[in-house]
């Protein structure tokens, strides 16, 4: 590769990694795919190639699904879950137990708990955990919304289902202090969440056990 070649605008390592050979549209597609979680340049190339070989069957439906989701999906004003309706499907479900709110770090954790079918109450998505390293402070977490939901009076228990990380534990302690004056029962998920573990990578059985063995915070 010589200076002045068409790929010179990209950082040299990035361009080399992608192995550019098919025009700017393909480069752009692979570059965007490579930024997705779990994807690197190699899997981005494979995914792009698969789609490009069957544009009608694979690519156009995906493009339409992406546009539809981007247009329709928003965070639920009550709990922070992502849904195309607001309040979200879970908050709007009158068969769910409205006295128990399970607090999770992110929507991925909510999805994991729903997949495992271990919680029939409502959720509250914090949007992160306190982290001195990442500069995430209390004002960055969705706690005002949680306190106002509790103030409405239906909630009797708040389950803190945060990951077993230092930041998760710090956040759980801090939240417990914030929630204590409300008088609700505060519990934390119990055994089975390995140290350093995030909730959304646990299998359904482990998640169920963690929720069943919750203990007072
Ligand atoms: Zn909701």
Explain the overall architecture.
With 217 residues, the protein is of the alpha/beta class. It has two domains: 6-72, RecR Domain 1 (Helicase, Ruva Protein, domain 3), CATH 1.10.8.420; 82-216, Dna Topoisomerase Vi A Subunit, Chain: A, domain 2. 44% of the residues lie in helices and 13% in strands. It contains nine helices and seven strands; from the N terminus they run H-H-H-H-E-E-H-E-H-E-H-E-H-E-H-E. It has helices at residues 12-18, 24-34, 41-53, 55-72, 89-92, 107-116, 143-151, 166-179, 204-212, and strands at 74-75, 82-83, 97-104, 121-125, 157-161, 185-188, 215-216. It has a five-stranded mixed β-sheet. A two-stranded antiparallel sheet has the order 1-2. Helix 6 packs across helix 9 (204-212). The longest helix has 18 residues, at 55-72. The protein is elongated. Bound molecules: zinc ion (ZN). Zinc ion binds at residues 76, 78-79, 81, 87-88, 90-91. The site of zinc ion has 8 residues, from helix 5.
